[in-house]
């Protein structure tokens, strides 16, 4: 494997962060390095987090292996296991091993993790006094449980309670000695800590707290027999597990002269003070913080791999973390700044009898922390709100009751926890909940991308993404699995939608190849996910300048018709405001007959759909319809679809305004506009709302005094009623608001994100502020009108003229 | 009109099919999708997705793959095989380019 061009990359530490970094590098550039991994533990790589379930007998060692030794061989990685690295010789660029071997490196990653903090008290080296860190510790505990009765766990944090729970499950009598008066005080406030203590006591766990350990007493054979506290109490124990904190393994770096404080100090690229040496994982101190959970370490691993693969544009800026206690039957979740204080608001729900406690911390209309006890269903959702910094002022009143109770506002995402295993999650690919869970467990999946690749769930239309994420979170514990706060656009890049859009504008990128080159796409020409997105972003950023790339459009938009199951197309001419004429109807009827339409149907958007048209006939039928003045209805596109209207004041006795006329004006203003997703409007002549304007992306309800404007509705799989955004007096204002709203959506939504989720992500107030500000609204409207100049070209006329040939087979060999 | 034999048959000019796009070649035994792939080469496979028969010629072409327009299966143009986790395969046909024209060999699948 050691070819001359390859640089030698050596990793000290065969743990979770180090190996994850190697995996990420292999994904980016598998041939770049000759890799050697040195690990003190005599195994492949395993999932340390799951040692707790192994101890509790809920999982086995085999279950938690991530990469067996064969994996290293298959990927050309040299694994030196069961040997400790003792020194780094920076002058000669070699790592020195305990058996005196020397391993040369060009670049070195230190990923030595941390070790349990062993209290500096007399007797701490007696037999039976251990930490809780690795497989050997678990084996010691299981052995002790067979031969002894009493265990003391020192330290009532996450690790300590998981250890205590596991030992109890193995039949031991366990006492937890804790220095503080709240359990898990780094994750819980006093209330939640007290509730947790009560329910653990009910299970038989004993607590002595607050209490300080002063000595560990041994018997004549040198084995521990008791723990002695400051007040003189002695607690019998034949096993003592110290879980009073962890200490980063920084010595090997420190002795090599690398700058360390609590951990090995690194910059935002995870580089130490020696540019050839990097560090990642729990041994690291980044911007003053040492992390002890997997999620932030995996984020670090991604950044480091990106850097080592020569991409060099990602930086690590620190993480918000969340935790969940892995004790079966106890639901507990905490994230962010859960203590509040300092002028932060707190929302609290407490049901002592029911065993439920929830506290949410809010600063500046944003959720910044959460503690949940007893009911953690919404943990993932809260954590997402925290990481995304979403404005929650609109849902503040209902926030505590959880996502399912947002009701009309449509934030509801039914919890998957209650679904049976055979429930179908991904309708597109027919994947059930059980299959997803099995794949996650059996194949050790951590991310949404992984699940997509292996099971295909949410890989197609993506509407079940939220459900899949919930399943992932519930299986993995909701903590370390969390995907980065913003997801990359697709597997071809690590950039998010917003980063890509910003790069396009900031750097004047004007074609898809330019974007891919500038942002170093991993694939030569993208995939079916990113290409249409980039095409749209460029179209939106450079109206009139960017030339639409048809090869990056989905077939419906390329053929300007909806492809049907049998490969034929449907054709829908536009009918402004749902109004037509006898001549138009005649032309449609003639076309339907001439081209053998298999079905003629009136659509929900008040127009007529001709089904079963053959592809090669499309240019001709369009030409015929064009002659009668009909143009494409964009019924196939991520674009303005229809403006549904009722008859309004002209005919209806309840009507307050000319809803039909206004609908026509709206459609004339907006047709042809390409959008992140399809976009529908409606205008009702009075609050009876016959045009169903309140489930449209933009809806107008006429009232005596003017017009109510509604946004963000959706009549799809998940019905969402609109939010009222403004009341205006004149038609001109309606048009201006509509155009400005559309432009805001066009400029800031992610591709394939409809207005409803977009508003939920950005916050209604955010949208409102931007539109209420008159200057801003007018500027948006101006930009919209400018881009419409170029967009309002009937694609049918254009296609029939320029691309007619492409609709036919290129050859007929019959 | 051309007859179908084991011989190379000219089916298109290179210019008919810009890079990253596909077209249909109609034959007696069904439609074949002819692609100009990201690597600059031409490939031909059956125009029926192994999943539910989607018209592959209408998919988005990227590198040497096409994504089916109906449910996003990704097919390898070189081998005709569906990318994991999907399983399935379509027939492939030999293609060559000579003097600016694209030739297809039907028998040689
Ligand atoms: C019981 C338990 C439960 C946990 N539960 C959770 C949880 O629910 N959620 C969560 O997010 N996190 C949890 N964690 C924490 C998580 O496991 C760690 O954050 C993570 O494993 C750290 O990864 P790392 O690569 O930095 O260190 P490690 O995974 O510890 O890897 C470091 C490796 O380096 C080796 N090593 C050290 N020094 C040397 C040397 N000089 N030479 C050679 N090899 C060396 C060590 O033997 C070790 O194998 C838990 C940890 C434990 C112990
Ligand atoms: S919405 Fe009002 S005005 Fe329009 S048709 Fe219904 S009742 Fe009449
Ligand atoms: S028919 Fe091709 S993916 Fe379903």
Q: What do these coordinates show?
A:
The complex is a heterodimer of chains A (814) and B (109). With 814 residues, chain A is an alpha/beta fold. Chain A is 31% helix and 21% strand. In chain A, helix 20 runs parallel beside helix 21 (731-748) and helix 21 (731-748) crosses helix 24. Chain A starts with 6 loop residues before the first strand and ends with a strand. Chain B has 109 residues and is mostly beta strands. Helix content of chain B is 0%, strand content 42%. A six-stranded antiparallel sheet of chain B has the order 1-9-8-4-3-2, with no helix packed on it. Chain B is globular, with a radius of gyration of 13 Å. The interface between A and B is large, with 35 and 44 residues. The complex binds flavin-adenine dinucleotide, iron/sulfur cluster and FE2/S2 (inorganic) cluster (FES). Flavin-adenine dinucleotide binds at residues 12-18, 38-41, 48-49, 51-52, 84-85, 111-113, 132-133, 159, 162, 249, 252, 281-282, 292-295, 297, 326, 477, 479-480 of chain A.
């Amino acid at each position: 494997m050691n070819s001359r061009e390859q640089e030698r990359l050596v990793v000290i530490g065969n743990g979770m962060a180090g190996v994850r970094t190697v995996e990420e590098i292999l994904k980016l550039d598998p041939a770049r390095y000759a890799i050697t991994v040195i690990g003190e533990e005599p195994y492949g790589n395993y999932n340390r987090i799951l040692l707790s379930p192994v101890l509790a007998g809920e999982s086995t060692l085999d279950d938690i292996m991530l990469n067996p030794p064969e994996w290293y061989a298959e990927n050309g990685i040299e694994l030196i296991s069961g040997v400790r690295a003792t020194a780094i010789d920076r002058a000669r660029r070699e790592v020195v091993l305990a058996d005196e071997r020397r391993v040369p490196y060009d670049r070195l990653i230190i990923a030595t993790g941390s070790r349990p903090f062993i209290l500096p008290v007399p007797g701490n080296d007696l037999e039976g006094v251990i930490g809780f860190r690795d497989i050997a510790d678990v084996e010691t505990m299981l052995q002790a449980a067979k031969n002894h009765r009493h265990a003391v766990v020192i330290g009532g944090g996450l690790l300590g309670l998981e250890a205590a729970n596991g030992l109890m499950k193995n039949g031991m009598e366990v006492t937890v000695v804790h220095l503080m008066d709240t359990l898990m005080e780094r994750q819980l406030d006093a209330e939640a800590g007290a509730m947790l203590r009560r329910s653990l006591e009910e299970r038989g766990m004993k607590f002595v707290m607050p209490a300080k350990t002063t000595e560990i007493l041994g018997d004549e054979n040198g084995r521990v027999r008791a723990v002695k506290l400051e007040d003189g109490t002695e607690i019998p124990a034949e096993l003592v597990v110290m879980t009073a904190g962890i200490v980063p393994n920084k010595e090997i770096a420190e002795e090599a002269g690398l700058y360390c404080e609590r951990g090995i100090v690194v910059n935002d690229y995870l580089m130490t003070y020696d540019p050839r040496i990097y560090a990642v994982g729990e041994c690291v101190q980044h911007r003053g913080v040492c992390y002890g959970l997997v999620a932030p370490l995996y984020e670090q691993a991604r950044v480091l791999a990106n850097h080592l693969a020569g991409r060099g544009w990602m930086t690590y800026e620190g993480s918000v973390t969340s935790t969940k206690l892995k004790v079966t039957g106890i639901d507990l979740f905490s994230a962010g700044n859960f203590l509040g204080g300092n002028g932060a608001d707190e929302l609290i729900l407490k049901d002592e009898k029911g065993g439920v406690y929830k506290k949410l911390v809010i600063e500046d209309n944003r959720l910044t922390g959460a503690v949940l006890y007893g009911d953690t269903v919404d943990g993932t959702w809260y954590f997402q709100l925290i990481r995304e910094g979403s404005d929650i002022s609109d849902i503040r009143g209902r926030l505590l009751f959880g996502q399912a109770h947002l009701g009309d506002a449509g934030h509801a995402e039914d919890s998957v926890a209650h679904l049976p295993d055979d429930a179908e999650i991904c309708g597109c690919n027919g994947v059930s909940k059980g299959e997803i869970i099995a794949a996650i467990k059996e194949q050790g999946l951590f991310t949404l991308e992984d699940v997509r690749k292996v099971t295909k769930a949410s890989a197609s239309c993506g509407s079940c993404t939220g459900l899949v994420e919930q399943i992932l979170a519930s299986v993995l514990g909701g903590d370390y699995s969390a995907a980065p706060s913003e997801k990359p656009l697709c597997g071809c890049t690590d950039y998010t939608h917003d980063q890509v859009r910003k790069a396009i504008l900031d750097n004047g990128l004007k074609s898809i190849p330019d974007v891919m080159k500038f942002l170093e796409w991993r694939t030569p020409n993208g995939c079916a996910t990113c290409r249409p997105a980039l095409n749209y972003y460029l179209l939106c950023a450079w109206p009139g300048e960017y030339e639409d790339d048809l090869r990056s459009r989905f077939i419906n938009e390329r053929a300007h018709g909806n492809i049907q199951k049998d490969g034929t197309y449907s054709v829908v001419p536009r009918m402004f405001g749902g109004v037509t004429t006898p001549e138009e109807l005649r032309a449609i009827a003639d076309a339907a007959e001439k081209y053998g339409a298999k079905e003629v149907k009136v659509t929900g958007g008040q127009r007529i759909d001709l089904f079963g048209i053959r592809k090669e006939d499309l240019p001709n039928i369009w030409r015929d319809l064009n002659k009668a003045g009909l143009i494409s209805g964009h019924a196939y596109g991520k674009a303005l679809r229809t403006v549904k209207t009722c008859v309004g004041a002209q005919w209806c006795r309840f009507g307050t305004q000319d809803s039909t006329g206004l609908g026509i004006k709206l459609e004339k203003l907006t047709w042809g506009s390409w959008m992140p997703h399809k976009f529908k409007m409606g205008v009702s002549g009075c609050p009876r709302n016959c045009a169903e304007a309140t489930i449209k992306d933009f809806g107008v309800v006429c009232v005596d005094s003017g017009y109510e404007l509604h946004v963000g509705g959706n009549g799809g799989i998940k019905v969402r009623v609109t939010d009222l955004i403004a009341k205006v007096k004149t038609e001109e204002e309606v048009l201006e608001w509509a155009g400005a709203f559309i432009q805001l959506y066009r400029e800031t939504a992610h591709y394939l994100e409809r207005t409803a989720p977009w508003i939920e992500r950005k916050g209604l107030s955010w949208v409102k502020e931007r539109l209420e500000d008159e200057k801003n609204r007018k500027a948006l409207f101006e930009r919209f009108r400018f881009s419409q100049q170029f967009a309002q070209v009937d694609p049918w006329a254009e296609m029939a003229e320029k691309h007619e040939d492409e609709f036919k087979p290129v050859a007929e060999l019959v | 009109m051309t007859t179908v034999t084991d011989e190379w048959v000219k089916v298109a000019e290179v210019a008919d099919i810009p890079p990253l796009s596909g077209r249909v070649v109609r034959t007696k035994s069904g439609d074949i999708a002819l692609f100009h792939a990201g690597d600059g080469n031409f490939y031909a496979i059956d125009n029926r997705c192994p999943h539910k028969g989607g018209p592959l010629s209408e998919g988005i072409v990227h590198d040497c793959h096409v994504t089916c327009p109906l449910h996003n299966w990704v097919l390898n143009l070189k081998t005709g095989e569906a990318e994991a986790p999907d399983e399935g395969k379509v027939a492939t046909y030999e293609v060559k380019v000579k003097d600016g024209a694209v030739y297809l060999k039907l028998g040689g699948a």
